[in-house]
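does this look right to u?? uridine-5'-diphosphate version
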Amino acid sequence: MYDCIVIGSGFAGAVVAERMASAGKSVLILEKRNHIGGNCYDIEDEHGILIHQYGPHIFHTNNEEVYNYLSEFTEWYNYSHEVVAYLDGTYVPVPFNINTLRIVYGNEKARNLEEKLICEYGFGSRVPILKLRENKDADIRAIADFVYENIFLKYTMKQWGQKPEDIDPAVTGRVPVLVSKDNRYFQDKYQGMPLNGYTQIFDKMLSHPNITVRLNEDARNVFEFKENEILFEGKAFDGEIIYTGALDELFQCQYGRLPYRTLKFDFTYFDEDSYQPRAVVNYTVSEDFTRITEFKKLTGQEIKGTTIMKEYPMAYTGEEDQIPYYAIMNEENAQMYDKYVNIVSKYNNFHLLGRLAEYKYYNIDGIVEKALSLVKELVK
Ligand code: FAD
Ligand code: UDP
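got this back:
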């Protein structure tokens, strides 16, 4: 028998498994896909180009412990993520910053506006678009309206099917207006790409002799939740169980389906060395897709030809071939989520962890941090 069963092999599951195994516990991982790594999985396509199968992933963090921990499993390609938005035939830096301001308004007009922004918020500050729109100054409001209309409104409608003011403010707050000339998408102390890809990190983490991985194994087929205990393959299991999948789906959506956004990814190969000016171009006013990623510009891979990917967001309906990517965080959905948490809260050995299981918008570093601290608790 195992000391611990982990459901899911994304960062949440892999970190827990590796830490538990290193603490001497025997660990079983159940993963319903045919590979490890969850949404951070990457693989070479038929042209030898390393692609991210489930959307572009750039590692960034201010958390030293997380950075040091992951650095045990990889070296880093020193990459600073810079995104541009395609606006009426030109490419402008996103997040909107002073460089963007100058492109949009021209140097002369931008100079006055720039001074106003610095005076109001301070150089280097990060102002969420919804906050900027509340400013009383007419010039600042005009900038806010421009940014709202040209960067946020249509992109957010595509991504979430809702206007920026109708979704959780923390979501648009991830990409604030920057009162600086920093064109980077993230300002974190550490950022980069794993030198040999993400999948290799997972391979290393899960190669620990105390870890057994079962692929193509859906937890729903092997667990039963009884009044006072959880059965694994028909027998009571009192070791730790860490679940990183969607909580509603574990209980047949009995209180209703938790709403998610999913994505359709459309990959195309070109026999050209370069497709676009940056690794990621956001389409903030036009097109049905939100962004195009050109992988070799993310990973630094030197190779002939290039593969790009378009992302088409849509509502998750639970169909077999869909994956729930983004929790839609609001009061109503939180209440439904809590009902599912109530079902499992009576089992002391059952733990919810990860972007799905916690119904939260986690970056990689956030989930690694959470996983590290959960294991510290469990092995205390
Ligand atoms: P996942 O990676 O989703 O892993 C969950 C695993 O559980 C999956 O492998 C799934 O198959 C498995 N599973 C689920 N249910 C079951 C079941 N019943 N039985 C067995 N197995 C099951 N973060 C960043 O820091 N930088 C980025 O640039 C970035 N870009 C992103 C882009 C996109 C499009 C998306 C969707 C997310 C992005 N993220 C990014 C967030 C990042 O993907 C997550 O933080 C991370 O994947 C969370 O890991 P996780 O283990 O919680 O979930
Ligand atoms: N956003 C936007 N325009 C952009 C970039 C982001 O409207 O050019 C909004 C959109 O609502 C998006 C949110 O900001 O969902 C967060 O963006 P982020 O790039 O962090 O999303 P992720 O990479 O997690 O999909």
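DSSP finds twelve helices and 22 strands in the chain. idk if thats expected tbh
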